[in-house]
Amino acid sequence: MTVLPTAHWAVLGKTPQSLDDYDVIGSSTGALSKAEFSDWLKSFSSGTVEPKALPRVAASHFSRGGESWLGLSLQTKPESQDGFHRPYTMTWHVCLRWEQVSKTPISYRALYEALQRKDFSGESPFRLSLRDYDPPRLAGVANATARRAAALLLTGRPVCVVRAELPMEQRLDFLDAVAALLPYGMRSGLAVSTWTNSASRHRIRLSFAEVAPAHGAWELPWERDVPHDLPPEARLYEQELAQYEHDGLTRLIRRLAALGRPLDLDSETDRAEALMRVREHTAISLASSVKQVLPESLDSLARADEVRLHELNAHLSQALDRVTDDDRPAYRDIVKRNLTRLPDRLAGSPTTETFFGILLRLLYGPALHRHDLENLCLDLGGLREVPRPLARALKAASARCDPLVKLLITYLIGDAGMRQQLLSNMTVEELLHLIGRSRDATVLDSVLRELGGRGDRKEVAQQLHRHRYLVKPISACLGDAGMEHHRSILQLSRGRLLLPGDVKEIFEALDETPPQAFMLAIVAESGRGTGAALLSGLTAHALRQLGLEGPIKREIEDGLTRMTAPALTRALRSPRRLFGGRLPATTSSQTGRIRTVQDSLRRHFPTPLTESDVEAALDRLEHPAPLADLLAIMAESGPGTAPTLIYWLAHRAVAQLNSRLTAESLADIDQGLQRMTGPRRALPLVWRSHRGQA
Amino acid sequence: MSASIHDLIASFVQRLTVVEIDVAGIRFFEVRADEIGTPYVIRRAAAKWSTLTATGDEVADAVGRVARELISPDDPDPVVVLHTAVGPEQEASLRAITAWCPAARVAHPTGVKAGDLLRDLAAQVPLRQSYDLVVARERAGDGRLELAGQPLFGAGALPGQDAHATVTCTDPGGMLLAVSAWAGPLEPSGLVSVDHAPLPAGRHTLRAVLERPGQVGFPGIAGLRPHTGSWAEVVAGLPVRLRPPSPRPAHLICAIETTGAQDELEARCHWPAYLIDLLAETPTQFSIMSYGTHVFGERHPVHVPPRVVLWAGSAAQARVALESLRPAPPTYPNAAQVEDVLAELRGLLRQDGARTALLTVGARPPHPRRVGRDRVPPCPLRHDWQMLLQDLERRHGTKCAAICDGTSPVWERLGSAALYQVDAVDVEELAARLDLTSAGGSLTLPFVS
Amino acid sequence: MTESEPAPDIAMWGASGSGKTAFLAALSIALNKAETNWKLVGENQASGAELIKLRNRLLDDRTFPDSTESLTYYNWLLIGPPEYHRQWWRPWRTQPGRAPRIRLDFLDPRGGLYAESQASVDKEALVSSLVRSRGLIYMFDPDRESRVGDAFKHLDSALNEVAAQMLAGNEYADGKLPHYIAVCITKYDDPRVLTLADRWGLTEPDLNDEMRIPRVAEDRAREFFHRLCRHGRSHNAEMIVDLIETYFHKDRVKFFVTSSVGMYIDERHRRFDPDDFLNVIDDPHRGLMIRGPVRPINVMEPVIWLGGMLSSRSMRSGR
Question: So which domain of life are we looking at (chain C) (predicted)?
Answer without folding.
Answer: Bacteria
